[in-house]
Amino acid sequence: MSASGPATPNMIRGILSMIAGGGALTISDAATKWLTASLPIGEILFVRALIVAIIILLVVRRSGSFGALRIGRVRNVSTRAVLAVGSTFLIVSSLALLPLNEVIAILFVGPLFVAVLSGPLLGERVSVHRWLAVLVGFTGMLIIVRPGSDAFQIAALLPVVAALVAATRDIVTRRISKTESSMGILFYSMVALTLAGLVTAPFGWRPMDVEQVALAAFTGVMFGLGHYFIIEGYRYAEASVVSPYRYANLIWAVILGFLIWGEIPSMWVLAGAPLVVGSGLYILLYERSRKPRAG
């Protein structure tokens, strides 16, 4: 059945899974942001990544599929892991300094970076439609960041750089997914992040109380659940159907930011975010329209 057909139970399940996955990841981000007020970033990420790695090992052990963790090419997996570490540290640093809704809105330029980088890195043809959508999206990002204005913060560049690094990570993931399993890619990225966090131990780690340990572990559980639900979303329905619902993360971010910190999106976020989201959706729908339909 084509993606344009009537909704089926699996399609609805896929959409709900994608929305739930985005919600879980945003909850993880919000809890991480809360912890940055009292703990160093490296310490938080050490606990979060360790929890995710343990969850993966438990899942693999229960299913008896340890072969899923076997590496095909160490260099490819290592490259992806380094990029995952870099993007994660940048994202959490952004969360520590900026409102949650602003960080999430800026991070949505990631698909635009993917659209641009897929040309030189994957050899894909970047159409005029893609370039126009990218220009609109970057305009929205500039409206949010406001470079050159009195209100500009250097910290606002952190999620932009994070989106660029994450886009490179996603392209590498796309390239190596033919030889490596999704479980293996995620597991070794978490191992790398655990080690990277541990390296920061001599630089200001503080004793964690029970509540902080529980909350850090909670961020890991939510992170793992988020990725699980997103994978399930892609399992039940075509990517072109469920991918747009990842933009619901911005709604989650606005709700959580308001409930926890009393954050209200600025007029700049309200003006720029629709351009960023709209351009990403346009690229997705345009690429979907170019694919031959089955049947």
Note down, in words, how this protein is organized.
- The protein has one domain.
- It has helices at residues 9-35, 41-63, 74-97, 100-107, 110-122, 128-145, 157-176, 182-199, 210-236, 239-242, 248-261, 267-290.
- The longest helix has 27 residues, at 9-35.
- The chain is built from twelve helices and no strands.
- The N and C termini lie close together (8 Å).
- The chain has 295 residues and is mainly α.
Briefly, what is this?
This protein has 295 residues and is mainly alpha-helical.
**Helix/strand order, N-terminal first:** HHHHHHHHHHHH
N/C terminus separation? 8 Å
Record field, number of beta strands = 0
What value does the Rg take, in angstroms? 19 Å
Helix fraction? over 70%
User: Looking at the structure, what is the overall shape?
Assistant: globular
Total helices: the number is: 12
For the residues shown, what is the average pLDDT?
A: 85
Structural class: mainly alpha
Total domains, how many?
A: 1
- What kind of sheet is the major sheet? none
Query: Which regions have little confidence, pLDDT < 50, spanning 5+ residues?
Result: none
Strand content: under 5%
Any key phrases for this structure?
295 residues; mainly alpha; 12 helices; globular
